[in-house]
Design goal:
The protein contains ten helices and ten strands. The chain has a five-stranded parallel sheet with strand order 3-2-1-4-5, sandwiched between helices. A five-stranded mixed sheet has the order 7-6-8-9-10, sandwiched between helices. The N and C termini lie far apart (39 Å). The longest helix is centred in the middle third of the chain and has 19 residues. It has 262 residues and is an alpha/beta fold. Helix 4 packs antiparallel against helix 5 and helix 9 packs parallel to helix 10. It folds into two domains: 119 residues, Rossmann fold, CATH 3.40.50; 137 residues, Cytidine Deaminase, domain 2, CATH 3.40.140.80.
Length: 262
C-alpha cells in the first residue's frame, strides 16, 4: 500500500490522478494539499504517525508538494516520538536537504520504501529536447553551461534550484523564497536571459525534485526572459502541454537539456 505525503501546489493532485488506485493521503499540519487528506500529522507526533502507517499496511511512501521546515514545540511531543527527538533536532539543523534526507532515513528504518513522485508518475518528467516553436540561440547554450556551474555552487550551500543567466553572468539566484520570488525581483529587466532549473548536485531525487508550470512561464515572460532550460530527468512539468502552449504564445523556448551535455 502506498502513502502519499502531500504538500501544497498542483503536484499532489497530478500524481494522484496518475496512480492506478488511490493511496493513503497524508499531510503535514499547516501545509494542507488541494486534495482531501486521510491523515494530518505534526513532526512532534512523527513516531505515532509512523506507527499508524505500519498499522494500516503501508509499505511505500511518496513525498510530493511544497512544505517548509515547521516550527517545533517541545511540549507537543508524544511518547512514540520522544526517542526520535535527538535525530529530529540533528536533521533539522542540516538545512532543507539534510532534513529531507533525515526524514527519508527515518521512514526507511521503519521498513518503508520511499519512492519519488517521478517514479510514481513517470509522465511528469518530459523527454529531452526542445518542444517549443522558439529555439535557444548559441548564447543560450553557453548560458546553460553557466547555469550548471551556478547550481553546483548553490547546491554546496543547500540553497535553491534555479538561477537566471544572461551572457554567461548570473543575474539572480533562487533562495528559500522560491523561483517565483526570484523572478519577481527582476521586473522586466532580464531581456534575452534564461531561467535555468535543476536538482541540486547529489540531491536525493526521491524528494523535493524541482517543478515548473504555467505560473513559472508567466513570471519568466514578465521578467523578459527568452526561455527556460531544465535538466532532463531532473525537473517535473505537471502540465507539459499547457506549458508548451503558453510558451509558444509568449515566444519563449523550453529546452529539456540532457545532463551529460554539461
Amino acid at each position: 500500500m502506498l502513502a502519499l505525503i502531500a504538500g501544497t501546489g498542483v503536484l499532489p493532485a497530478m500524481v494522484l490522478q496518475a496512480l492506478p488506485q488511490r493511496p493513503l493521503v497524508c499531510a503535514l499540519d499547516g501545509y494542507a494539499p488541494d486534495i482531501p487528506a486521510d491523515i494530518t500529522f505534526r513532526i512532534e507526533r512523527l513516531g505515532g504517525f509512523l506507527n499508524d502507517l505500519t498499522a494500516r499496511g503501508v509499505t511505500q511512501v511518496c513525498m510530493v508538494g511544497g512544505v517548509r521546515r515547521p516550527q517545533i514545540r517541545a511540549s507537543a511531543f508524544d511518547f512514540a516520538t520522544l526517542k526520535l527527538v535527538p535525530t529530529i533536532w540533528r536533521n533539522m539543523r542540516k538545512g532543507d536537504d539534510g532534513a529531507l534526507r533525515g526524514f527519508i532515513a527515518l521512514l526507511e528504518q521503519r521498513g518503508l520504501q520511499v519512492i519519488g513522485a517521478h517514479e510514481a508518475a513517470p509522465a511528469l518528467l518530459p523527454p529531452a529536447g526542445i518542444p517549443t516553436q522558439a529555439q535557444p540561440l548559441p548564447s543560450h547554450i553557453e548560458d546553460a553551461r553557466a547555469g550548471v556551474a551556478q547550481l553546483a555552487l548553490m547546491g554546496a550551500a543547500d540553497l535553491g534550484q534555479a538561477c537566471v543567466i544572461r551572457q554567461g553572468i548570473v543575474i539572480a539566484s533562487e533562495d528559500d523564497a522560491g523561483t517565483d520570488a526570484m523572478l519577481a525581483t527582476l521586473g522586466g529587466a532580464a531581456t534575452a536571459a534564461i531561467l535555468f532549473k535543476g536538482p541540486k548536485p547529489n540531491q536525493d531525487r526521491r524528494a523535493d525534485l524541482p517543478v515548473i508550470g504555467p505560473r513559472t512561464v508567466q513570471n519568466a515572460a514578465a521578467a523578459g526572459l527568452a526561455g527556460i532550460v531544465i535538466e532532463a530527468g531532473g525537473v517535473m512539468v505537471p502540465d507539459l502541454a499547457g506549458v508548451i502552449q503558453l510558451m509558444d504564445a509568449q515566444g519563449l523556448f523550453l529546452w529539456v537539456r540532457p545532463k551529460e551535455a554539461a
